[in-house]
Amino acid sequence: MGSSEVSANAGAGTASAGDLQSTGSDRLLRELPIGKIGIWWFLASEIMIFGGLITCYVLMRIAHGGWEAEAAHVKWRLGAANTLVLVTSSLTMILAHYSVERDDRGAVSRYLGITVILGLVFLGIKTFEYWSDLREGFTPLSGMFWSFYYMMTGLHAIHVTAGIVINAVLFVMARRGTLWPRVQQRVEFAGLYWHFVDVVWIFLFPLLYLS
Amino acid sequence: MESVEHGLARYIGVWVWLVALLAAGLAVMALPVPKLAALALIFGIASIKAALVIRNYMHLKYESLFIIAVALVPVLLFIGLAIALIPDIAMHR
C-alpha cells in the first residue's frame, strides 16, 4: 500500500469499495472514520454554496451580457499571482501530511507554518486588490458584475481566513508537541478543507478574471 | 507498491503541472481564437487543474465509493440546477 493510500484510509477502521459491494452500506458507514464522513459531508455542503453562487453568476451573465466592459477592469495579474500562491500552499499542505506519514515532526510544523504564511500572502494580495478597485470607484454597487465579484471573492476570502486559523492552530500545537497522537486525522482533515478552498479558487479565477 | 520517495515526487510533479496549466490558461487569452473557443479552453484547463488537486492532494482516487458519492452528488445537483434554469433565466429576454 502506498503512502497516499495509507493517508486516504487514515484512522481506526476503514472500508474499501469491495466491502461496499460485499457487506452493504451499514457496515461501510460503521467502519469509515466518522471524522472523514463529517469533513466530506461538510465539503459537500460547501460545494452547494459555491455551486449555487457560480450557477447564478453564469446564468445572469448569459442572460444580461455586456459585462465584458466591467470585467476588463479586474486585475488579472494579481489574480494569477494569487492562484500561484494558493496552489503552492496546497503543495506545502500535502507535504505537511506527507511528513506526518514519515513521522518527521519538524517538517510537519515547518510546512504548516509555510501554508499559513502563503494563506496570509493570498489575503494580503486580495486586500490590496480590493483597495485598488475601491479607489478606482468599483464598489459592490457599481454593477451586477462587481456585486458578484465582491460576493464570490469575499466569501472565498472568508473561507481562506478560516483555513488559516485552522492551520495556525495546528502549527502551534505541532510546535508544542500536542498535535500528536491524533496528528494523522487532524492534518488530513485540515488539508482536505484547504485543498477544497484551492479548488474553488481554481474556478473563480477564470470565471471572474479571464472570461 | 508506491515508495515514499515516489509519493513526494508525485506531489511535486502535480504542482509543476498546476503551474504549467496556470500559464497555459493565461496564454489562451493571447491566442487569436473566437471568444467561445477561448472560454472552452480556459475552463477545460481549469477543470484539469481541479481534477489534479482533487485526485492527488485530496486523495479522492483512493477513497471508498461512499466518499466519492458524497463529493459527486452535490456537483451533479448544481449542474442539474444550472441546466434546469437555463430556459427560465439565461434565455428569458
For the structure shown, list the relevant keywords:
heterodimer; A: 211 residues; mainly alpha; 0% strand; globular; disordered N terminus; B: mainly alpha; flat
**Distance N to C terminus of chain A:** 43 Å
How many runs of DSSP E, i.e. beta strands of chain B? Answer: 0
The number of strands of chain A is 0
CATH structural architecture of chain A: Up-down Bundle
Q: In whole angstroms, how far apart are the ends of chain B?
A: 58 Å
Task: Give a written overview of the molecule.
The complex is a heterodimer of chains A (211) and B (93). With 211 residues, chain A is mostly helical. Chain A has a single domain (33-209), classed as Four Helix Bundle (Hemerythrin (Met), subunit A) (Up-down Bundle), CATH 1.20.120. Chain A has helices at 3-8, 17-23, 25-31, 34-64, 68-71, 76-101, 105-135, 144-176, 183-210. The model of chain A is unreliable at 1-20 (pLDDT under 50). Chains A and B meet through α1, α2, α3, α4 and α6 of A and α1, α2 and α3 of B.
Task: Explain briefly what this protein structure is.
The complex is a heterodimer of chains A (211) and B (93). Chain A is mostly helical and 211 residues long.
Secondary structure: elements and pairs:
The complex is a heterodimer of chains A (211) and B (93).
Chain A: H1 3-8, H2 17-23, H3 25-31, H4 34-64, H5 68-71, H6 76-101, H7 105-135, H8 144-176, H9 183-210
Chain B: H1 4-28, H2 35-57, H3 65-90
Helix pairs in contact in B: 1-2
